[in-house]
Amino acid sequence: MFNTINVTQNILYVGASDRKLDRFENMLPLPEGVSYNSYVILDEKTALLDTVDVGVGKQYIENVKAALNGRQLDYLVLHHMEPDHCASIEEIAQLYPNAKIVGNAKTFQFLEQFYHTDLSDRYFPVKEGDTLELGEHSLKFMLAPMVHWPEVMFSYEAKEGILFSADAFGTFGSVDGNIFDDQMDYIDVYLDESRRYYTNIVGKYGAPVQMALKKAAELDIKMIAPLHGPIIRKNIEFMIDKYQKWSTYTPEVNSALIVYGSMYGNTESVAESLSGMLSQRGIENIKAYDVSTIHPSFLVAEAFRYSHIIFASPTYNLNIYYPMHTYIHELGALNVQKRKYSLIGNGSWAPTAGKLMGEMLSSMPNMEQIGECLEIRSSLKDEDAGKLEKLADQIAESIKNS
Ligand code: FEO
To answer: What would the DSSP string read from start to end of 88-153?
Structure first.
């Protein structure tokens, strides 16, 4: 059974949600599912904007056929060539043999790398600023390289004021009938997953996102239609502000994020005590996580959110406890910067974790260590609480002065 939803009178949502996929890119957990969005524009010419992931391909094809309602497809527009949006290209090309395939030079390069049907005689190349006229509707293309991949482009439909933003402004989480952000409490339902999506998928590419935001700022945007998650029409300014912060690595919360690894509870106990000491010093919104019990993608999102991060780790095989190593490595890979950090290292006979965490974190741009690394031998004794109190003083003072 098809499921098409009107975005406007002549623009239809034909995407679908996957609520059984365990991990996005076979890596990032999807506790709330994920949607793959696609849109059909019906005018003198017809256009289909992107396809979907293989997991929802059957539903998608039913939706597209229903939306076109017997009409031929004139254009298949490819904003992004990652396979979560491209699995149905060959099927659509077969179903609609007259459809031109709209993309840029890199789009076609990736199309040929991923897929094996020769569609080159149907290419309709576009470049920055080109407009595809469909009748009353038109699509103006803006290249947005590295707003996830190098071939990504946005398009702007002028009649309705819709920015088709590819992965940008997308989010994890299924779309459950309500395709617009004003049909639910979008911030409550989707913001955390939007942040986790952005920071883990696009977080590395702050500068390219800034360039894309500058282009978007020149447009009269009434809706942002991403490739994942609801269409944004109520929270446009709010989400653009979030993207400004995330893409400039500006924290949203001036407080302490405590991330600890602990094998037998001794490092955890120190982290627990530190959280209480910070609270007693007037710090609010403290958050503590056991790095072993939560997927790093959630902690990456929290690192983008918080101003101060305290890393506490045991030494393991003369190295950093490896869930913590993975986490810090990922922060570096995603270009996390401009954070204040503090270190707690634990080791029973040859402690190295504190020193090695410091080396990793200090190599990231504009990072500032608060206090000295607190080194623990197996456990922190009550009589040594003063050392932790001193670190708490320094962190609290830094937060208050930030
Ligand atoms: Fe949703 Fe970069 O693909």
So the answer is: THHHHHHH-TT-EEEE-HHHHHHHHHH--S--GGGEEE--TT-EEE-SS-EEEEEE-TTSSSTT-E
Span 134-152, pLDDT tens digits = 999 999 999 999 999 999 9
Q: For 190, phi and psi rounded to 5 degrees?
A: -115, -15
CA of 131 to the centre of ligand 1 (A): 23
pTM (two decimals): 0.97
**Are 66 and 38 in contact, with CB atoms under 8 Å apart?**
no
Coil, helix or strand at residue 123: strand
Q: How distant is the alpha carbon of residue 247 from its chain centre? A: 11
What percent of the chain is modeled with pLDDT above 90?
100
Tokens read off for 392: 């708490």
79 touches ligand 1 (CB under 6 Å): no
Assign 384 to helix, strand or coil: helix
Q: Is the CB of 148 under 6 A from ligand 1?
A: yes
pLDDT at residue 95 in the model: 98
Q: Could you tell me if the CB of 50 is within 6 A of ligand 1?
A: no
Distance 80 CA to ligand 1 centre (A): 7
Task: Using the mean position of ligand 1's atoms as its centre, give its distance from the Cα of residue 392 in Å.
Answer: 41
- Dig out the tokens for 289 from the structure: 């996580």
Ligand 1 atom nearest the C-alpha of 201 is 2
Contact 46, 40 (CB under 8 A): yes
| 3-state DSSP assignment of residue 28 | strand
For 67-123, what is each residue's pLDDT tens digit?
999 999 999 999 999 999 999 999 999 999 999 999 999 999 999 999 999 999 999
Indicate the pairing of strand 11-13 with strand 5-6. antiparallel
Confidence band for 269, pLDDT divided at 50, 70 and 90: very high
Contact 41, 207 (CB under 8 A): no
Residue with the smallest CA separation from ligand 1 atom 3 is 82
d(CA 168, ligand 1 centre) in Å = 9
CB distance 340 to ligand 1 below 6 Å: no
Note whether 346 and 314 are within 8 A (CB): yes
What is the phi/psi pair of residue 396, to 5°? -60, -40
339 within ligand 1 shell (Cβ under 6 A) = no
